[in-house]
């Protein structure tokens, strides 16, 4: 199979237009990526894994309008990105390297103790930090940090947008300084969008827990609402610079926690809403509330495992005669319920 033929197959796969036999072939090929018979050493496999993760996070919408609940588009961002990265980096090129001297970026104001990089490319650049944490630096974003991290802090300064995957170290918190705010974590994955002179700064959490607060206002325990917030998975906050105001919400496309098997958790057969809500809360770490106890008695049968969360809820709620809406960092289900 040629490169063009394989790319065409992957495009049809992500669009749901390939045959059952073709789908099984692509699934088999994806599964073989981690098999021992593939000629990749451990560092190559890890670098490809990190690069795929970074590309997937960059592909998730950040500045676009939230998808309307009545949209039934099945977004397969992860599969699409995975296909592209694997074709480019594994089969035909295998050119990815963790060595930063082979990554396209411009060093600026670099001295003996600090590094400063600006991504002048049109692609996301994956970089490895001194503690082996990784950062996916978006186009036109710049980052600076010490060549070596000593003491009890790991500190990074960011202008622009980047996604961080931080190695856990309970003794050394990880700090990202962007614009007028500071993001503090111990070990997690999250994104920061702090463009130069921007009127607002946004932080979104994929995994773990993150403290976000105004610069020069260090966190002592639970951050007060006037100076910052604590975010958990699938939550984001936007800080408006002019009035120093924080607005928290759910991310545009909540993702299940790592390790959740949607094909097992979200195939229902005469399942009550009470059970469905429990699975959603457990899988997405999001609180779901109802305005009537009678909603818990409604039942749903169907396979919604391929859908994004909001599309899934839309189908379930319409089928059961209910509706839902996002209220801050919670999901509210309303309706007459069922007897």
UniProtKB/TrEMBL annotation:
Cross-referenced Pfam families: FecR (PF04773), FecR_C (PF16344)
FecR protein domain location: 125-210
Gene3D superfamilies noted in UniProt: 2.60.120.1440, 3.55.50.30
Domain named Protein FecR C-terminal: residues: 265-333
Molecular function, one GO term: sigma factor antagonist activity
Record InterPro entries: FecR, FecR_C, Ferrdict_sens_TM
Designated name of the protein: FecR family protein
């Amino acid at each position: 199979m040629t490169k063009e033929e394989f790319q065409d197959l992957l495009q049809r796969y992500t669009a749901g237009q390939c045959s059952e036999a073709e789908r099984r072939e692509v699934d088999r090929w994806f599964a073989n990526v981690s098999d021992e018979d593939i000629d990749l050493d451990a560092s190559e496999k890890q670098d490809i894994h990190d690069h795929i993760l970074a590309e997937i996070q960059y592909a998730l919408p950040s500045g676009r309008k939230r998808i309307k609940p009545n949209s039934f588009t099945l977004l397969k961002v992860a599969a699409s990105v995975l296909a592209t990265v694997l074709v480019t980096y594994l089969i035909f090129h295998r050119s990815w390297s963790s060595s930063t001297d082979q990554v396209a970026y411009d060093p600026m104001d670099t001295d003996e103790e600090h590094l400063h990089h600006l991504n002048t490319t049109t692609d996301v650049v994956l970089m490895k930090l001194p503690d082996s944490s990784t950062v996916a630096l978006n186009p036109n974003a710049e980052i600076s940090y010490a060549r070596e991290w000593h003491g009890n802090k790991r500190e990074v300064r960011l202008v622009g947008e980047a996604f961080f995957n931080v190695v856990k170290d309970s003794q050394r918190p990880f700090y990202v300084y962007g614009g007028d705010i500071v993001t503090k974590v111990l070990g997690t994955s999250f994104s920061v969008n702090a463009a130069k002179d921007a009127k607002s700064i946004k932080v979104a959490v994929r995994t773990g827990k993150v403290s976000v607060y105004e610069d020069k206002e260090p966190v002592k325990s639970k951050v007060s609402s006037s100076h910052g917030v604590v975010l958990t998975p699938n939550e984001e906050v936007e800080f408006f610079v002019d009035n120093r105001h924080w607005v928290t919400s759910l991310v545009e496309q909540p993702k299940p926690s790592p390790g959740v098997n949607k094909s097992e958790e979200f195939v229902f057969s005469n399942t009550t809403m009470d059970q469905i809500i429990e699975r959603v809360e457990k899988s997405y770490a999001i609180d779901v509330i109802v305005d009537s106890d009678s909603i818990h008695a409604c039942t749903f049968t169907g396979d919604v495992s391929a859908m994004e969360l909001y599309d899934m809820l839309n189908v379930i709620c319409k089928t059961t005669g209910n509706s839902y809406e996002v209220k801050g960092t919670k999901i509210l289900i309303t309706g007459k319920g069922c007897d």
